[in-house]
UniProtKB/TrEMBL annotation, chain A:
Protein name as annotated: Tryptophan synthase alpha chain
Aminoacyl-tRNA synthetase as UniProt keyword: no
One Gene Ontology cellular component: cytosol
The enzyme's E.C. designation: 4.2.1.20
Annotated source species: Mucilaginibacter pineti
UniProt record similarity statement: Belongs to the TrpA family.
Gene: trpA
From TrEMBL, chain B:
Function: The beta subunit is responsible for the synthesis of L-tryptophan from indole and L-serine.
Name the UniProt record assigns to this protein: Tryptophan synthase beta chain
Enzyme class: lyase
Pfam families assigned to the protein according to its UniProt record, in alphabetical order: PALP
Enzymatic reactions: (1S,2R)-1-C-(indol-3-yl)glycerol 3-phosphate + L-serine = D-glyceraldehyde 3-phosphate + L-tryptophan + H2O
The organism's place on the tree of life at top rank: Bacteria
Keyword vocabulary terms for this entry: Amino-acid biosynthesis, Aromatic amino acid biosynthesis, Lyase, Pyridoxal phosphate, Tryptophan biosynthesis
Similarity-based family: Belongs to the TrpB family.
Length: 266, 393
């Protein structure tokens, strides 16, 4: 077990962002290597120019159990294109020359494990990555085995919360978090549609009422201005994933990015 | 138990529960309740009754006389092939459906490769009147069509897994995705000793009836409780875990786990996980799996759909790493030949999975007094097409 306190200095870009901007934050997810290799930094740059506040760049995995068909497809295509963590890190050599907003890497645990966790954290930090979302790295394993690697490299590890997560567990997640908490709009895989029901509203209200120390960002099912506004009524911002990945399948997607962002947050 | 699971779900370096938060409440509920439910006298009584009167247990421990002569030792077959639905898979399905009932679940999901676990799950759902959805890879649905029909006749819905490589690992992914979307009313009956803790331990406990019976039966046959050798085939490893379970602490008993080498360990078409795999995380547990250097899961190959899985259960990974069990591999050709030999020398057509364990006998040397138990995990009815095509009957 790790005995040191799980804190880090707050110099990373995520903390600076959340310190200065509290509402209507917009984050975009996309899969590196999709639709083609060598697009990750171009897309990031375009998204920053279009006004996105921070980004999640996915690295693909063959067995993405938390993802729906859209992101599964992008992962399969990225793998076919030859994307690997090594290649992604090569692409990200350009990242901090062209992009200033906070960047998170998002992906499953096994590719990280094969790359080497310590090596992964060091490399990501060196390239200017601010945080990581690893959906299948649970709290116990993170805290007991790996937290130090993230903390030593000033990388935030982002935890997910679902409507089924107990208040006690949310408190524990709040303690272990040091930038934001990722609220899932429902227990679902990515790419579903968000329908505001009383249950979801109760869940958002319950979280808001807990007055957590970390900001909250809502993801899964955010696809247009309407769902974005609903999410922002209860949290500091929202994440759009599948809807943006679908845009990347279209011809001339780079030119369409500004209009896409305006469509979500005019 | 020396080789059992610790409180965090680990066997040495392997195991754990590497699951997304969406699955945490489901898995945590199981973790908190499975031991007390399994140990409850009412549960035990119902489980034992169904195993006896519905499954047909105890399954015989058969002294194979012609095999014994041929291999120069006392060879015994543990006849899981005689169970209702034709394999050991029913032991676990019965256990988990009774558990699901006590958890108040209204809907069952399962994954299946060859279809044996799917059929077992559809069977127990029919028995209990509970809705059943089975995920099966599109490719497996085509090559195991009779089992698809069986599941449908039993009232189950069979959903094709069309993502990824369209086989067992993708069926497992689809089942996990279903469970994420149905966290309250659904129980996922995993068919092998894989998945996040507590599944590997829970499934091993339900399958441990195999070795529990074997110990008693061996005394009746030989006057001794312990054999010299115990053999079983390993895909995910549930029949092997059940066959090894009560012998693990008897260090003199040599445990042999037989993996599917496919067309040869180095052919590029193989499912010999301990030979070809590295440590990693698959389907919620840290184990040994076949993967690229970048950590992408590699699609395995075996003529036997039930052994065609890129990982092994975490307890197997542990037994392998600490050398408590020996992991070997047998090719398609060796297994098919062994299946034919067993048919013609003992009058038993084994499942191709079990034929892998039988084939290992060819590679071993015994002393005349050695007692050797082989788990005959399933019957070969489902494999007739494959046998027929292979041998041209």
């Amino acid at each position: 077990m790790n005995n040191e306190p799980l804190t880090m200095n707050s110099s990373n870009r995520l903390n600076q962002l959340f310190a200065t901007k509290k509402d209507n934050l917009l984050s975009i997810y996309y899969t590196a290597g999709y639709p083609a290799l060598n697009t990750a930094v171009d897309i990031a740059e375009a998204l920053e120019k279009a006004g996105a506040d921070f980004l999640e760049i996915g690295f693909p995995y063959s067995d993405p159990v938390a993802d729906g068909p859209t992101i599964q497809h992008s992962s399969e295509q990225a793998l076919e294109n030859g994307m690997t963590l090594n290649l992604l890190f090569e692409e990200l050599e350009q990242l901090r020359k062209r992009v200033t907003i906070p960047i998170l890497l998002m992906g499953y645990f096994n590719p990280i494990l094969q790359y080497g966790i310590e090596r992964f954290c060091k490399k990501a930090a060196e390239l200017g990555v601010d945080g990581v979302i690893v959906p299948d790295l649970p709290m116990y394993e993170y805290e007991a085995l790996y937290a130090n690697y993230f903390i030593d490299n000033n990388l935030s590890n982002i935890f997910l919360v679902t409507p089924q997560t107990s208040n006690d567990r949310i408190r524990k997640i709040d303690e272990l978090s040091n930038s934001f908490i990722y609220l899932l709009s429902s227990s679902s895989i990515t790419g579903g549609s968000l329908q505001m029901t009383n249950n979801i509203e109760d869940y958002y209200k319950r979280i808001k009422g807990m007055e957590l120390k970390n900001p909250t960002i809502i993801g899964f099912g955010i696809s247009d201005n309407n769902t974005f506004k609903q999410a922002c009524a209860y949290a500091n911002g929202a994440i759009v994933g599948s809807k943006f990945v679908k845009l990347l399948a279209e011809d001339g997607y780079m030119e369409k990015i500004p209009a896409f962002i305006k469509g979500i947050r005019p | 138990m020396k080789y059992g699971v610790n409180e965090h779900g680990y066997y040495g370096d392997f195991g754990g529960a590497y699951i997304p938060e969406m699955l945490y409440p489901n898995v945590e509920e199981l973790r908190q309740k499975y031991i007390s439910i399994i140990n409850d006298p009412d549960f035990k009584a119902e489980f034992d009754d169904l195993l006896k009167n519905y499954v047909g247990r105890p399954s015989p421990l058969y002294h194979a006389k012609r095999y014994s002569e041929k291999y120069g030792a006392n060879i015994f077959f543990k006849r899981e092939d005689l169970n209702h639905t034709g394999s050991h898979k029913i032991n676990n399905a019965i256990g988990q459906i009774l558990l699901a009932k006590r958890l108040g679940k209204k809907r069952i999901i399962a994954e299946t490769g060859a279809g044996q676990h799917g059929v077992a799950t559809a069977t127990v759902c029919a028995l209990m009147g509970i809705e059943c959805v089975v995920y099966m890879g599109e490719i497996d649905m085509a090559r195991q069509a009779p089992n698809v029909s069986r599941m449908k006749m039993l009232g189950a819905t069979v959903r094709p897994a069309s993502s990824g490589s369209k086989t067992l690992k993708d069926a497992t992914n689809e089942a996990l995705r279903d469970w994420i979307g149905n966290p309250v009313d659904t129980h996922y009956i995993i068919g092998s000793v894989v998945g996040p803790y507590p599944y590997p331990d829970m499934v091993a406990r339900f399958q441990s009836i195999i070795s529990e019976e074997t110990k008693k039966q061996l005394v009746e046959h030989t006057g001794k409780q312990l054999p010299e050798y115990v053999l079983a085939c390993v895909g995910g490893g549930s029949n092997a875990m059940g066959m090894f379970y009560h012998f693990l602490d008897d260090e003199d008993v040599k445990l042999v786990a037989v993996e599917a080498a496919g067309k040869g360990v180095d052919s590029g078409e193989s499912a010999a996980t301990t030979f070809l795999g590295q440590e990693g995380v698959l389907h919620g547990s840290r184990t040994i799996l076949m993967q690229t250097p970048d950590g992408q899961v590699v699609e395995p190959y075996s003529i036997s759909a039930g052994l065609d899985y890129p990982g092994i259960g975490p307890q197997h990974a542990h037994l392998y790493k600490i050398n408590r069990a020996q992991y070997v591999s047998v090719t398609d050709d060796e297994a098919m030949k062994a299946g034919l030999l067993c048919s013609q020398m003992e009058g038993i057509i084994p499942a191709i999975e079990s034929s892998h364990a039988l084939a290992q006998l060819e590679k071993m040397t015994f002393k005349p007094d050695d007692n050797v138990v082989i788990c005959l995990s399933g019957r070969g009815d489902k494999d007739l097409d494959t046998y027929i095509k292979y041998f041209g009957y």
